[in-house]
Specification:
- The complex is a heterodimer of chains A (220) and B (80).
- Chain A is built from 5 helices and 11 strands.
- Chain A has 220 residues and is an alpha/beta fold.
- Chain A has a single domain, classed as 3-Layer(aba) Sandwich (Rossmann fold), CATH 3.40.50.
- In chain A, the strands form 2 sheets. Chain A has a 9-stranded mixed sheet with strand order 2-1-3-4-11-10-9-6-7, with helices on both faces. Chain A has a two-stranded antiparallel sheet with strand order 5-8.
- In chain A, helix 1 packs across helix 5.
- Chain B is an alpha+beta fold and 80 residues long.
- Chain B has one domain: Mth169, Chain: A.
- Chain B has a 3-stranded antiparallel sheet with strand order 2-1-3, covered by helices on one side.
- The chains are: A alpha/beta (220), B alpha+beta (80).
- Chains A and B meet through loops of A and helix 1 and helix 2 of B.
C-alpha cells in the first residue's frame, strides 16, 4: 500500500501527515510537490495537508485548487482514488468542487487553536470504520476559515445520505449543522477542518486520530 | 482596457467581518450605519480590444477562480 502527501508552498502539516501515515502503514508516503503534474500510478491514498497554501491569497485553498497536481488529483478522485484533506486540505477540496460547500471566516472572527471534541456521526465510512458510531474523539483544530457553509438543499442532502461524518460537540467556528467533516457521494473523498494527523502520538496529547488512518488503510 | 471585478458575499451568507465593521462604526458614533458588507475589488489590466469579448472572458475568470460562487457573487465593470 502506497500513500502520498501533496506539498504546496506554505503547507505546514505535510510532515505531521507523513509521520501519521508512516506510523500506520510502516512505509513513508511519497511527498508530491505542487508543480508536479501527475500522481504516481502506484499511489492508493492521497492526503492534502493543512497549512496556508499560497498564503491563503484570494481565498483559503483557491490558488492551490488551480495548481497542476490538483488537476490530476481531481481526475483520479473522480475515478475513485481515496483522497482526504485536513484543514487547508478540506478548503482546497471544496474549492475544486470535489466536496460541496465552502469554508468561511469563523463566526467569532477568531483563529481557534485547541483540542476539540467531535462526534463520529457516521462510523460506516471508509474513514471512520474503526470508530464506534456516535463515539466522541478529540482532535486539535487550528484555523481561521473553518465555518462550513452550504445552502439548505445541500445540507439536507448531506444529512440524508449520511455524509456528515464528524460533527463538533461544541461548535468552535459557526459551521452550519455543526459540520466538522464530510465525504463525497461516492465515499472516496473526505475533508475535515480538525487535524487527526496531530493526534497520533501520546506526545501530541492523545491518539484519537489513529483510528481514522487505520480505517483508511483497512479500506484499501 | 481595465476590468474592475467587485466580489461580495451573496445575500443570506453570514458576513461576520461586515458585522464587526458596522459595530465599530456605531461605536465611533456613526449611528446611521445599519449594516456593512465586506467584499473585495480586483483590478485587471487587459490587452483585449473588444468589450463584449473582454466581459465574457472576465466572467469565465470569475467562475473559475476569482469568485467562489457557492458563497460569493460578482459584478464586472469595464473601463477604457
Amino acid at each position: 500500500m502506497q500513500t502520498a502527501v501533496i506539498v504546496f508552498p506554505a503547507s505546514n502539516c505535510d510532515r505531521d501527515a507523513a509521520m501519521a501515515l508512516e506510523k500506520v502503514t510502516g512505509k513513508a508516503p511519497k511527498m508530491i510537490w505542487h508543480r508536479d503534474s501527475e500522481i504516481p500510478s502506484d499511489v492508493d491514498f492521497v492526503c492534502i495537508p493543512g497549512g496556508f497554501s499560497y498564503g491563503d491569497y484570494l481565498r483559503s485553498g483557491a490558488m492551490a485548487s488551480c495548481s497542476p497536481i490538483v488537476a490530476d488529483l481531481v481526475e483520479k478522485a473522480n475515478k475513485g482514488l481515496a483522497v482526504a484533506g485536513f484543514c487547508n486540505g478540506f478548503q482546497i477540496l471544496t474549492e475544486t468542487g470535489l466536496l460541496p460547500g465552502a469554508l468561511m471566516r469563523n463566526k467569532n472572527l477568531k483563529f481557534v487553536c485547541r483540542p476539540e471534541r467531535l462526534v463520529v456521526n457516521n462510523a460506516n465510512t471508509r474513514y471512520t470504520s474503526q470508530y464506534e458510531a456516535k463515539s466522541i474523539v478529540t482532535y486539535p483544530v487550528a484555523h481561521h476559515d473553518g465555518s462550513y457553509f452550504a445552502d439548505d438543499a445541500v445540507l439536507n442532502k448531506l444529512e440524508k445520505e449520511g455524509r456528515i461524518v464528524f460533527r463538533y460537540a461544541d461548535n468552535p467556528n459557526g459551521s452550519l449543522r455543526d459540520i466538522a467533516g464530510i465525504v463525497n457521494e461516492a465515499g472516496n473523498v473526505f475533508g475535515m477542518m480538525p487535524h487527526p494527523e496531530r493526534a497520533v502520538d501520546e506526545l501530541h496529547g492523545g491518539t484519537d486520530g489513529l483510528g481514522l488512518f487505520k480505517s483508511i488503510i483497512e479500506s484499501i | 482596457m481595465k476590468a474592475l471585478v467587485y466580489i461580495g458575499l451573496k445575500p443570506g451568507v453570514l458576513d461576520p467581518q461586515g458585522r464587526a465593521i458596522a459595530r465599530s462604526l456605531n461605536d465611533l458614533g456613526f449611528d446611521e450605519v445599519n449594516n456593512a458588507f465586506q467584499g473585495k475589488v480586483i483590478e485587471l489590466d487587459l490587452s483585449s480590444e473588444d468589450k463584449t469579448e473582454a466581459k465574457a472572458q472576465v466572467e469565465k475568470m470569475c467562475e473559475k477562480l476569482l469568485a467562489n460562487t457557492v458563497i460569493e457573487s460578482y459584478r464586472i465593470e469595464l473601463r477604457d
